[in-house]
Design a protein that fits this description.
By secondary structure, this protein is α/β, with parallel strands linked by helices. The protein is 29% helix and 26% strand. Helix 3 (94-104) links the parallel strand 7 (88-89) and strand 8 (111-114). It is globular, with a radius of gyration of 21 Å. Bound molecules: shikimate-3-phosphate (S3P). The site of shikimate-3-phosphate (S3P) has 11 residues, from helix 5.
């Protein structure tokens, strides 16, 4: 385990190139493998999560070569995967495991999906139950967690009402639906991120979106097409948050994804008082991207309800941090899904920010934060092996009085290798 010491900063400013989007990279590798022919995924995210998905695809017979920042994939068509000789290991990645479970449920061979300690604790019945209804022969281990065992099944279409707003669940079922001869629909309580739908449209796969319902018609093959991955808005969020902590400072981030199902953090930051600007907006491979800049300001407390949670789900730990540095009491409700992430982020955020001298209260699915601008104190804190916790705490350390010691920062490589060095390069001391 690698530790890190974060020293307080006077400010943070400058230009930063944000790494490629994790969600889009996973999907690009999967769809490129299932398409017919060769495609180039440019600006692929070579971080542990996505690399594990690529390794699994290689075990299934896909040729995927790295060329600089690109991944070149020889797609084998919808039915072209072959049986793996060993278990498929997805490391820390819920996205990799859940999306690939959808693909593997439609194959004529068996497979076993495993993950690291954190992934092995995460709930899988949210996909195995609906996949079973679609005709898949799939079972998680006792307790509903990985490993997942899949045997050949006979996938049929379904009209599934999902109890959770989860892009991983939705994408898993839509991918499985490609192996049926009819239509598969997923309706969510609130819309989750729509990268799968956008990529399907980019590739010419028949997908239809009607409000909270997404439908795909299975059976049709498609020709692989090149995909360019934009910068990850969730990775940009760490710099955005760091800047928001220092009134008057600005950060500029070119080429960041601006997907309306992902940009909740920016809307909330604007409500809190920050100045957010998008420039040079362009549509690339079905996803909008642009150059993002933010200027920090004195922050006001916010209230956030369940309908807003899906679009800010991965940024809620950062929002809790900003709430500690805002005037007033902030409330986040309908955030129970945070307990199902790489760690229980609701408890972890409350526990670690309390160690830094802040006042937070948590309930089953809510968090209340009493603002205490300027009151963050350096402390010895835990990341729980969760990349987003580690990065949030590093940002917190910049604004704290005294040093902050983070117990484990190796987990940052899951999504953002080089994060701490990049952050350090922007800091004023
Ligand atoms: C992701 C979906 C989200 C998100 C995760 C990536 C995806 O999870 O938290 O980091 O790529 O589909 P849920 O869809 O389960 O909420």
């Amino acid at each position: 385990m690698k530790k890190a010491v974060i020293r307080p900063a006077r400010g943070i400013s400058g230009k930063v190139n944000i790494p490629p989007d994790k969600s889009i990279s996973h999907r690009a590798a999967i769809f490129a493998s299932l398409g017919r022919g060769r495609s180039v995924i440019s600006n692929f995210l070579f971080a542990e999560d996505c690399v594990n998905t690529v390794k699994a695809l290689r075990q299934l017979g896909v040729k995927a070569e790295v060329s600089g920042r690109d991944l070149i994939v020889e797609g084998r068509g919808l039915k072209g995967l072959s049986a793996p000789e060993e278990e498929l290991y997805f490391g820390n990645s819920g996205t990799g495991m859940r999306l690939m479970a959808g693909v593997l449920a439609g194959q004529s061979f068996s497979s076993v999906l495993t993950g690291d300690e954190s992934l092995s604790r995460r709930p899988m019945e949210r996909i195995t139950i609906p996949l079973g209804k679609m005709g898949a022969d799939i079972a998680p281990s006792e307790g509903g967690t990985p490993p997942i065992n899949i045997r050949p099944g006979n996938i049929k279409g379904a009209d599934y009402e999902s109890p959770v707003a989860s892009a991983q669940v939705k994408s898993c079922l839509l991918l499985a639906g490609l192996y049926s001869g009819d239509t598969t629909s997923v309706t969510e309580p609130f819309r989750s991120r729509d990268h799968t739908e956008r990529m399907m449209r980019h590739l010419g796969i028949p997908v239809k979106v009607e409000g909270r319902k997404v439908s795909v018609t299975g059976g049709a093959e498609w020709d692989a097409r090149d995909i360019q991955v934009p910068g990850d808005l969730s990775s940009a969020a760490f710099f955005t948050a760091a800047c928001a902590l220092f009134p008057g400072r600005s950060i500029y981030m070119p080429g960041v994804n601006r997907n309306p199902t992902r940009d909740g953090f920016l809307s909330v930051l604007a409500r809190m008082g920050c100045d957010i600007k998008w420039e040079k907006l362009r549509l690339v491979c079905g996803e909008e991207q642009g150059d993002l800049s933010i200027t920090g300001s004195e922050l006001r407390a916010v209230t956030l309800g369940p309908d807003e949670v899906p679009a800010i789900i991965d940024e809620l730990p950062l929002l809790a941090l900003l709430a500690t540095q805002s005037e007033g009491v902030s409330r986040i409700t309908g955030a129970g899904e945070l307990r199902k992430k790489e760690t229980d982020r609701l408890s972890a955020v409350a526990a670690e920010l309390k160690k830094m001298g802040q006042e937070l209260r948590e309930g089953p699915d809510w968090l209340e934060v009493t603002g205490n601008p300027g009151g963050l104190k350096g402390a010895s804190v835990r990341s729980y092996g969760d990349h987003r916790m580690a990065m949030m705490l590093a940002v917190a350390g910049l604004k704290a009085e005294g040093e902050t010691l983070i117990d484990d920062v190796s987990c940052i490589d899951t999504s953002f290798p080089g994060f701490l060095e990049l952050l350090e390069g922007l800091v004023e001391r």
